[in-house]
Amino acid sequence: MRGVARSRARRPIRAALLLAGLLTTSACSAPDEPAATAPRSEAPTTTATPSTAPSEEPAAASPPRPMTIALAGDVHFEGALRERLRAPASALTPASTALRAADLAIVNLETSIGSGGAPDPAKRFTFSAGPAALTALAAAGVDVATMANNHALDHGRDRLPSTFRAISAARRADPSLEVIGIGQDADEAFRPAVIEVDGTSVATVTASLADQDPTADPTGAWAATDASAGIADAIDPARLLAAVRRADRAADVVVAYLHWGVQGDRCPSEDQRTLARRLVGAGADVVAGTHAHRLQGDGRLGPGYVAYGLGNFAWYSPGPTGVLTLTVRPPAESAGRARVTASQWWPAEIGADGLASQVRGSAADAFDAERAALRTCAGLGGG
C-alpha cells in the first residue's frame, strides 16, 4: 500500500545505483536487437537438504513478496476536467481508488504541460494543462507518468523549457512522481523510471510510435535526438529494445509502456503484436499501451504479460475504462524471471465529468465478457 510498504521518498541507494547504471551504459549498448534473445528461465523449485549442523548453514533468504502494478490509460485535463485543476489534490477523486491501492501505478499523461508556445496549427486537437496537472497525478497515487505520446508537444518546442521547469518543480514538491518519455535529448527521453518496492526494483521504459505520418500529423517530428529535446520516439524500435535489455539486466521487473496502435481499433495491429513479442524477448515482463482510445485485449504472451490498449482514464469523452492491476512475483535472488501471477480489472465508466467511476452488477458482467472477447481478438492467453 502507498506509504505503508515503502517510503514515499523511495529513492534508496540501490534504486539510485540501478538508474545510474542504466544511464551510463546507454552510450555503449548495442543499438540493434540480437537475432535471438534468450529469455531468463523460470526459477527452479528446490528442496533443502537436511543438515546435521544447522547452525553452520547460512540463513535462507526470504523470497521477495509479490507486488502489484496498476496500469491506467490516457489522462488529460480538457473539458469538464479543466476546472478540477483548481483543486489538484482531489482532481481525480474517486478515479484514484484503484491507483492508490497498488504498490506502483502508471498512466499516460496525454497533454502539453506548462505555459508559452502556441497550439500547433497542423493538429486538429491540441491539449494543454498547467503544472497543477502533475500535482493532481501525484495526489491520485500515480508513481510514473509517461509523456511519450502525440500530444506532449501540442504547443511546440517553445513550451518545452516551461515543461521541464514544471517537471522539476513537481519532483521537488513530491519525489514520489516520476515523469518519463520526454527530455532535453534522446538519452533523457528514454531514461527509465526505476522505483524500489520492498527490495524489488521496477524499471518502466516508455516510447511513442503514434501518428508518424507527417502528411497526417506532425508529431513524428517531435522525437528527441542526441542534440535536441523532445519525446522518446520508437518508429525505429532499436533504441527502445536496447533500453529494455539494459533495464532487464539491472532491474528485477521491467515494464514497457507504449503509445501505439490505431485509434478506434478494438484489436491490436500486426505491428503491435510483432513489437510486443520483441519486447518480451528483450526482457519486458509487462508490456502495456494506449492511443486507440478504447480498451484492447490483455493476457499472457510467452513469459510476459501484455495489455495492448488501456483506453482513456481521465478524458472528456464518456466510455468504458478501468484500471488493470497485475500481481507480479519478482525473480528469485539467484535466477529466474519476474512473472505476472494474477490480473484484475477495476471496471469503470467515464462520466460527463470526465472521471472514471466503478461499475457493478450487470455492467461489470458485461465488462468481463468484453474483456474475454478482446483477449481472444488479441491472441493472448489467459490466467
Automatic annotation (TrEMBL):
Signal peptide: 1-30
SMART domains found in the cross-reference section: PGA_cap
Segments of skewed composition (Low complexity): 33-60
Keywords of this entry: Signal
PROSITE patterns: PROKAR_LIPOPROTEIN
Domain Capsule synthesis protein CapA: 68-317
Record region (Disordered): 29-66
Annotated InterPro entries: Capsule_synth_CapA (IPR019079), CW_Biosynth-Accessory (IPR052169), Metallo-depent_PP-like (IPR029052)
Domain of life of the source: Bacteria
SUPFAM superfamilies: Metallo-dependent phosphatases
Annotated family: Belongs to the CapA family.
Name under which the protein is recorded: Poly-gamma-glutamate synthesis protein (Capsule biosynthesis protein)
Organism: Nocardioides exalbidus
